[in-house]
Structures are given as C-alpha cells and as structure tokens.
Write a structure and sequence with these properties.
The chain is of the alpha+beta class. The chain has 2 domains: about 90 residues; about 130 residues, no CATH class. Helices cover about 40% and strands about 20% of the residues. The protein is built from 11 helices and 8 strands. The chain has an 8-stranded antiparallel beta sheet. A hairpin with a 5-residue loop joins strand 5 and strand 6. This is F-box domain-containing protein. It comes from Triparma columacea.
Length: about 230
C-alpha cells in the first residue's frame, strides 16, 4: 500500500501524512523507501513529528536531566521515541533522585500523631501545602524551609530525637527482589512512575515522596495513592 505514494508528488504525500496516526506514520516511513529521504529532512521531520511531541507532553512532567537530554536530540522523530521509551522507565538512579525536590507526606495508617503535624492532612483543601525534601548525594535527606516561614515540625522532632535521616537504595522488600529505597531502618519503599503525569512515587505503607512537588501536579499523585490502599496490608 505504501508503494502508492511513490507515484505522488512528495509535498503532497507529506501533507497526506499529517492525517496519519503516529503508528501509521512510522510504518509508512519504514516501508516506503522511496519517500524516506524526504521524511528525514529536518524541515519535514519537524513538520510531521513536532505535533505528536506536543500532544504527548500535555500534562507530563520531565526531570531537568531528561529535559537536558531531550535538548541534545535534533530529530523530532527521535525525540518522540525517546519520550515514549523514557515514560516506560521505572528505575531512578541517584543522580536523578538527588536532582529533584520531593513532596513528602504521611499516609493515614501512620497514625494520628503524624497526621496532626503533616500539612497535607491539616490544610484545607488538600494538596496546597506539603513538606519538601531533598535526597542529598552524601546520603542525607534534607528539608526545604516552608514558604510560610514556619518551623518544620518534622525537623524539630528529628532534632529532639537526635536522629539523622539517611537514604539508600536496596534490592529487597519483605523478601521480594527489586529496586527500592529505604530511609534509615524503616520499611523500604517501592519506586514507581505515574502513567498519567510521568511523575515519580516513592512510598510504603506509612509515607510517600512525590515528584513533581508543585500543587498543580500533586493532586493526581495523591489521588493515585488513595486508590492503592491495599498494597501494603
């Protein structure tokens, strides 16, 4: 079927190609060798594939490192494939983990004491305020001062208990092998990607670290956690 396009003026075939879905467009380019040289020119590549990139990125979040990698790719088709492949990635390394600012909150099973000092539970509406945390390259977990200037209650608690908060990757959780993150000696946390926003969720039965940490994206991540109440029972 692709051979039909050999008889058509290349400019016309390019316009026709704009009506194809991404799968058909890639298939056409792969099978119709006579047109491949036209499709790989920079102007045509941008004309055909940039709309798919724009549509793909709606509501999506990319870490600064992935944005930087994307900027080094000149071909829009290659950029599209890179984004699709990265969206399926569920492993995060130390460099990316430490480059992000994370929203932290307790889950309801953590208990009343922790919920009372957690702005996620004490604020109305939810999602408007969160503890913010950074995973540091030296293994420490640091806090970011609250915008309100209030004292961070968790920092106060940790200092009063003479407790240093540290993180590390671990390969097991409850005997199951995988890629997990552990804070001190508390239960290790699963590391997951949100399929809707491409954000990250690191959580166990008691706590959650979420990225992106801005309120406009947090609501979706919080809601996905509430639908996952049976995982750690």
């Amino acid at each position: 079927m692709a051979n039909i396009f050999i008889e058509i003026v290349p400019d016309l075939t390019i316009n026709v190609a704009t009506f194809l879905c991404i799968a058909d467009l890639l298939a056409l380019e792969a099978t119709c060798t006579a047109l491949r040289k036209f499709y790989t020119s920079a102007s045509v590549d941008k004309f055909l594939y940039s709309p798919f990139i724009n549509a793909l990125r709606v509501g999506k979040c990319l870490s600064p490192r992935i944005e930087a990698k994307l900027a080094t790719i000149s071909s829009c088709k290659t950029k599209y494939r890179f984004l699709v492949e990265d969206s399926r990635r569920d492993l995060i390394d130390a460099e990316e983990l430490c480059s992000l600012t994370w929203a932290f909150r307790f889950k309801e099973p953590a208990g009343e004491f922790w919920l009372m000092i957690d702005p996620y539970w004490s604020q109305s509406p939810y999602f408007t305020k969160s503890y913010l945390r950074r995973f540091e390259a030296d293994g420490l977990v640091s806090s970011i001062p609250l915008l309100s200037g209030e004292i961070d209650p968790l920092d106060n608690w940790a200092q009063g208990a003479n407790l240093t908060i540290r993180w590390r990757f671990t390969r097991t959780r409850l005997g199951k092998r995988g890629h997990y993150l552990q804070i001190n000696r508390w239960p290790s946390m699963v590391i997951e990607r949100d399929p809707i926003t491409w954000g990250w969720k690191i959580h166990n039965q008691w706590v959650a670290y979420l990225w992106p940490s801005d309120p406009s994206n947090l609501q979706r991540l919080h809601e996905s956690l509430e639908l996952d109440i049976d995982r750690f029972l």
